Amino acid sequence: MSSLLYAELAATCNALGYHDGQKYYVDTHCVETIKDLIRYLRRDDENHEIRRHLGEAKVLQMDLIPIFKGYWERSDLFDVVLRLMLNLTNPALLLYREELPADKTSRNFYLQIISHLQMYKEAMSDTAVWAIFSKKLGEILQIEWQERREETSLVVERILILVRNVLQVPADPDAEKRTDNDASIHDQILWALHQSGMVDIFLYISSMENEHQYYMHILEIVSLMLREQNPVELASAALQRSSLEKQRDESELLAIRLEETQERFTKVRKYAGARHSRFGGTFVLKAMKSISDQDLIYHKPLNNIEDLNFDIEKNKQKRPKNRLPMKSERTERRSAYSVRLFLKEFCVEFLTGAYNNLMHSVKDGLVRAKAQANDESYYLWAMKFFMEFNRNYNFQVQLVSETMHTQTFHFVQTQLENCYEMMVSDKKKLLLWSRRMHLALKAYQELLMTLTAMDKSTDASVRNSSKVIKSNIFYVIEYRELILMLLLNFDEVKMSRAYLKDLMETAHIFLKLLEQFCSRSHLVVQKPAARRKKKKTNKDSNQNPQETLPKRDPEALWDELGPQLSVVLQGHTEISSDVIPFDAVSDKDIDEQKVDAMRNIQTYLQEHKFEEAISLLRASREVWPENDCFGNPYMSAEEEFMSIREIFMADIPQYQLDING
């Protein structure tokens, strides 16, 4: 950076104002000065020298926060300070376009920006700062959304993005030196948000349908708030520590103490001056030949023949850096107890009042490509976390009903396949795609675990819903072969050991569910038959005999069949319930088999096989519940009679015979 630009930046920072030890006094041209700093950042170069200089000068800690706390009621000053704070706290990875710099100099600049962000995060743990934001948001949200101006809506979005920027700053465990159950800087930020009322505002926005334009910001904030939490431990947090938690803490402390004692003992022996075993003599091993067909000579004493090792002095073959196994990153830790308690309460309230509504809106935005690229990761994380929390806290499937259906399995499977394809094609971002794929796998695993919990429910309707979902995912070949595909494509260079562990657990859960499903239901697998060629005959003999028969009027035929069908629907005859209308190994897709089911119902009715027609109708209703094509399970006998009539009257093309073979 040139000396002239350095002097301009220093003069601009000095023109903001001064602090006399008790109060901060702003300069008369403070607003224009802050706007100048924003323009400087806009013209920053690829090395981000201006941003790094402002970080070294601690402008945010020494000037912007005191100005914000003392003069937030001035709307012009509030707006420009918020814009500058938002710019300074931008994620470092976004500045480098989501690619870590490769050269050493740029990597050092990147790490310097990270250190500045960590200092910003520590400075933003002040409850008074978030209390001002909470009050400002409360005033804006009291205005009806139709009456808000564009400027006020922009202020709400900027505040939410600022919260996101502060929460996403990575922790520095070596500098903080915080153990589990201790308040880290991230915990202090969470506690400040809780004390200032910002968390309640997040819940309010996520539960209001009129604020759907902020749902994606809320989902990002919630994921960053809970990124270090384990949903199982969070669900089991209580006002009193459990005996199991106390025992676990004591065992961890004991293990650390034994490790320190062992290190101290090793250090004492190292410098104690004890004679080494280098002069222990030479030994001959009988009945063990060397490469010269003579007895093996060994130069160290052996107390046990099994201690003989020829690999001690061998150097392990080094692997290239690009072929090393991917390392697993541990992000979970136990926060301070008070933080865990309020986060548990937050999760319960979020599940009860906001989860289904927010996830529906976010999913709609993802499907319609309204969201930004790769925002699916937040959706998958929220699905996994809150469904696991719900399962371990007080399982109620209606709280997560939005993400518990067959379409969700299809969405997650699509994400898994897309991530794997991007890992192969976009090798520069291999690490990012691998993490996203792991996230999708954990979401898929939690879907299967929720199915297991639904099977154990005392509510019959919940168990029936689980049966319908399982019938769909076990009969469709793409769902069945997903786990096998993931196992075959595992690569330790591209995927971590934690991914492999979750994959094996998911495969185990899937196989157990499949085993239980097969033991309770009749799983039909069709064996494809070999096609036989027909001999060519005369043209007259090849004519379809059915085409020569005159077709009867459907209305007249229904008048004949209707009374007999009504008697069967009244329950006077036994109707089978073990019909499987869907064939998983067939070459036809699910829509074609749906048409075949309707055609078979027509055929059964024409042949006066009313029990088979009703049985096939009810079985098809479970496989294809959408649009009520086969009715719904709660319909009366009269409604079911009319549903069968609609299928009978439908114009469905019949099979075409293959005359030429």
Automatic annotation (TrEMBL):
Query: What is the first-listed, main subcellular location in coarse terms?
Result: nucleus
Q: Which PANTHER family match?
A: PROTEIN TIMELESS HOMOLOG, TIMEOUT/TIMELESS-2
- What are the record's GO terms for cellular component? replication fork protection complex
Location comes to: Nucleus
Keyword Nucleus listed: yes
Query: What name does UniProt use for this protein?
Result: Timeless N-terminal domain-containing protein
Q: Does the keyword DNA-binding apply?
A: no
One GO MF term attached to the UniProt entry: DNA binding
GO terms for biological process? DNA repair; DNA replication checkpoint signaling; entrainment of circadian clock; replication fork arrest
**Stretches the record annotates as Disordered:** 528-553
Q: Which UniProt keywords apply?
A: Cell cycle, Nucleus
Q: Which residues form the Timeless N-terminal domain?
A: 23-284
Reading the lineage from the top rank, the first entry is: Eukaryota
